[in-house]
Amino acid sequence: MDGMRTMERTEILIDGVSAYLAQEQDLVALLRQIETAANGPAAFVEFVVVGNRRVKVLITPSSRVVISTETVQHDPRDTGNDAFPYGGLYDFDPEPLG
Questions:
Q1: pLDDT tens track for 15-36
Q2: d(C-alpha 68, C-alpha 71), whole Å
């Protein structure tokens, strides 16, 4: 055994667009929100994705949602705390340009 730490990563695919849920997301609560939105008029469902970024998705009765889970190597940055995002267009680069 090599001692590598792992964690569960959940992928959510909504109408063909994929995102990975951040750790500490309450999957059962999210599933309930999606079910409620899909059974009524369109409604926004909000969750945090890897990178600690908040996403809002409009769910309608015709939305297609697929959820899968896999075991991946542990990423200590993936806390689900959207006050501390990482990775992406708006990250601060401490190296000056030029």
A1: 999 999 998 889 999 999 999 9
A2: 11
